[in-house]
């Protein structure tokens, strides 16, 4: 702790990492208890008939703590910076926990799309953890290009950074998010991700594979083969915890059912309406044909909280 964290000035990064974890765990527990109608310290926050999502508090907290980090960056001691970094981590957790709300521009917290928020948190934790362990983006690039440098050649460093980030973006477009994130630190993974087939539901497959059915079929079969053992292991653990009898046959059947639901060709891009809504957003986007949450007594809602009853 003293040698690797405090003496190297990584204590704020460690506290940020812990704040991110604690903030995510606490908010997930909170929304689950609220949804289950369990009375405890936290509850819904409303302004009149408007439910205030916790991403709002996350934005305010990250803004204030971020300003503090900037202001104290040169003169602040490590303890002060660590406190501000911890608050920044908690705020980031509140924002990333509702990342899907920002991405889809609608409340999808408990729906399938809502899992995007969990993926975003895990990616942030993975990247922060690697930096905390001493890995730095582009380190392998700089080591490989060491002989090409004359002193500190800025041009070589900039080209390496642009190439690394460009390859990472291409890998992410192919649907391989974890490969892209880790590849920023370990660049050979990016080469592998670029060469290999894209995931069949990725934007790259939508753009490049829809007119090449044989390649799309290869991508689907490869996805099913690679994901089958991971999904089977997850269902196996879930059934063991739940005490389900006759586990193995159920795991095999449930795995194939899950693959049938999630592994499919990417849909063609939707037509974008030339008209705009009153708020200035483009209408005709995916999901616009869904009934709005709270539209009637029989309308299902996917918010993390129960609908707010209007004041009478």
UniProtKB/TrEMBL annotation:
Membrane spanning residue stretches: 12-31, 51-71, 83-105, 117-138, 150-171, 177-198
Lineage top rank: taxon: Bacteria
Compositional bias ranges of the Basic and acidic residues kind: 299-312
UniProt region (Disordered), positions on chain: 260-312
Keywords: Membrane, Transmembrane, Transmembrane helix
Name this polypeptide is given: Integral membrane protein
Source species: Gordonia insulae
């Amino acid at each position: 702790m003293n040698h690797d964290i405090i003496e190297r000035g990584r204590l704020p990064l460690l506290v940020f990492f812990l704040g991110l974890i604690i903030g995510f765990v606490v908010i997930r527990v909170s929304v689950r208890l609220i949804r289950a109608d369990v009375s405890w310290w936290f509850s819904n926050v409303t302004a009149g008939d408007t439910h205030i999502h916790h991403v709002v508090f996350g934005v305010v907290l990250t803004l204030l703590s971020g300003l503090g980090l900037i202001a104290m960056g040169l003169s602040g001691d490590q303890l002060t910076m660590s406190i501000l970094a911890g608050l920044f981590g908690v705020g980031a957790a509140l924002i990333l926990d509702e990342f899907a709300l920002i991405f889809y521009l609608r409340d999808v917290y408990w729906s399938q799309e809502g899992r995007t928020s969990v993926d975003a948190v895990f990616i942030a934790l993975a990247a922060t953890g690697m930096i905390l362990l001493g890995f730095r983006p582009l380190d392998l690039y700089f080591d490989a290009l060491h002989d090409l440098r004359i002193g500190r050649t800025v041009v070589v460093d900039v080209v390496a950074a642009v190439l690394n980030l460009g390859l990472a973006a291409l890998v992410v477009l192919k649907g391989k998010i974890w490969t892209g994130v880790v590849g920023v630190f370990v660049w050979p993974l990016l080469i592998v991700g670029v060469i290999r087939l894209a995931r069949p539901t990725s934007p790259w497959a939508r753009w490049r594979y829809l007119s090449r059915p044989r390649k799309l079929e290869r991508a689907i079969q490869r996805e099913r083969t690679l994901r089958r053992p991971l999904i089977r292991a997850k269902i196996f653990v879930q059934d063991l915890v739940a005490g389900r009898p006759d586990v193995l046959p159920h795991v095999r059947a449930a795995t194939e059912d899950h693959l049938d639901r999630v592994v499919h060709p990417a849909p063609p891009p939707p037509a974008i309406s030339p008209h705009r809504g009153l708020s200035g957003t483009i209408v005709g986007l995916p999901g616009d044909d869904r009934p709005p949450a709270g539209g009637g007594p029989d309308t299902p809602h996917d918010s993390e909280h129960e609908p707010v009853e209007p004041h009478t």
